[in-house]
Design goal:
mainly beta; 4-stranded antiparallel sheet; globular; 1% helix; 531 residues; 37% strand
Amino acid sequence: MRRPILLTAAFTFFAGSVWAQLAQPPAGVSEGAVKDLMNLCPANPELGKLDASPIWSGWGGANNARYQTKAAAGLTPTDVPKLQLKWAFGLPGGQSMYSQPSVAFGRVFVGNDNGVVYSLDAKTGCVYWAYQADMFGRFAPIAAPISGYRGARYAIFFVTRSTTAYALDAHDGKLLWKTQVRTGLNNLSATAAYYDGRLYVPMSGTETLVGADLKYECCRSRGAVAALDANTGKVLWRTETIAEPLRQLGENANGTERWGPAGASVWNTPTVDAKRRLIYVGTGNNFGRVAAATSDSILALRMEDGKMMWHHQEFEGDTFMARCKATNGADSNCPEKLGPDYDFGGSSAILETVNGKDILLAAGKGGVAVALDPDHQGELLWRTQLWETQAPSASGLVVWGGAADGSHVYYPLQQPGGGLKALDIRTGKVDWNATIDADRRGQAGPASAIPGVIFTGGWDGILRAVDAGGKVIWSFNAVRDFDTVNHVAAKGGSFGCAGAVIVNGMVFATSGYPGTLRGTPGNVLLAFGVE
């Protein structure tokens, strides 16, 4: 267990280009994170109740809608054009902002790509504590109750890319427990979900880059979901996304054995359906020579034990690996037919209620949006093609997911010029497509919504707000240098896997994501408010 460093004497450290003298850092300062601390808060008051003030915990709420009510948002459509940068926090040494901020107790929790997780004051950006985890992750920290630890009422939960799950005391950052979730070839590329004392952890396979290596015994890694006891970190169950067993597929030209089916990674946060005691996840493409029936699908898993109750497959036979070609022979590790790599990524499953009817919404890289009936084994209600003139490439059309407000679902488009489509949830009809005027790479980041406004970030480094008619009413170009409250040199860049978070009259966003389409790196957390 990595223990916090308890320091009683003054000490000197270097962070960025600024020397600072500090006495008695908070108890939650962990080894390796001390050098990153600047602009410490003068005090660390006790936390209030979790539900005492507006919050945004985790990826996008239990239903993954990424929607904040008017009362919790504290912003109206007339307020949004008045947003100004209130403060910027530089993530020391950061180059890629994988972590989405979360807000609870009047604090912002966010991770750096060197594995340090911070607790900041939401109004000023001063630092309450920092913790050095084993590595980075595409996570949004989760604030939730915890029991069994003296003095700790609430924890901050997150899972890093190595599938190491952490629970930290939300007040001071002390480690409460740490668990390695994976049992084989897995990593993690999305935020876990929390519900009723459990964490649901999505996992991806790891073999997308090894198809051309004839010395590698490919392919065995599969997507999976695990359930953890949030109070102890104990793994309660683990379910692979492919039900059929691995089988030998013969040797390649090098005499190396081949296996399958593999893949069907889970790149997205599970969606909780408390009414039906189910969780929903989207899956990606297959690896290797053969395809499974649950790739490029939406899966329904039983919360009790992880049993797969039903699935909806949108694209059959999608087997894709990098460094493979469409003409690979039968003696290779590569698929017989390559691609098109149409994963369900981002917040793939959004559970919404319209006129008393629950509807499960999903869209992914293939540029097709669907609505499924959770009361009838995922029966298809409607399907809408989001692309107009050319089918999406392997880079995808909807990458990190959409947002929904009870009447419409909004999907950012990764296409030349960008775009943001609004679909009527009842029918799938496209009501409007916002003119974004982005560069050729378009919008990759997930949408976030409040009543009458949708926020979306692009590869061009511009965060935009679009009104309910599809008009851009506010924008902020983050590709610049920033003066930061912690005196760490910081630059903004592309908006990628992390979306905007709106809480109590403020908008928070991390900027800087090189990604796969030559995005602009960066290392800044931005906080906007109305003057």
